[in-house]
Amino acid sequence: MAESMTIALAGISLFGLLGYLGVMGYLHRSPTGYDPLRHAVSDYGVGPYRRWFTAAAAASSVGTYALAGGLAVTPGFPPLATEDLVYLLLIPLTRAGVALFPTDLEGDRATRSGRLHYLFAIAQFTLIYLAVADLTGDLGVIDPWSGFSGVLTGLRWVVTVSLVLLVLALLARRVPRLAPLTGLFGLWERGFLFGVQFWFVAVAVGLLAAGV
């Protein structure tokens, strides 16, 4: 019974996570007017492509919830820390806030919606990083994830480096020496978000293997 539940949750998780990547791929190929190297991913949530941005957030949230459920059903040994699963459960809530409150485009007047968007985005990025940082080590000693712990570790480094560059790009608006990083804000953010998504996919694949 537990094995079939694990397989079902792993399948749902992969469907949602890969659905997110598919929608994002569509947005990046569409004539949105946004530059992937410079503009934030949240900019897709403003304008005629907003419904696709919302669909991507929903797909990723379903995938994340299913992943958390699967990891709770199949904890392995040693068991996962409770806070790790709590991080995963909270991420979709912050993602919903990001989708519900559109961002302010660069150069536009600051709005209440934009401020709330930034707050939810900060919370989302924080929870995502905590989940990836903590779970990488915890899963790396549990079968079947121990078999590709190098992949999880490598993706964690991608996430970490991208997040550092993303923060530096934000600080660059006040520190002239860091100005060159600002023009690649979109690249750093996509490195973080897509690195995280592939990390989730890798964990979901391990979850599927655990149930087979």
TrEMBL record:
The chain crosses the membrane at residues 6-27, 52-73, 85-103, 115-133, 145-171, 192-211. Pfam families: DUF998. It comes from the Bacteria. Signal peptide: none annotated. Keywords: Membrane, Transmembrane, Transmembrane helix. This is DUF998 domain-containing protein.
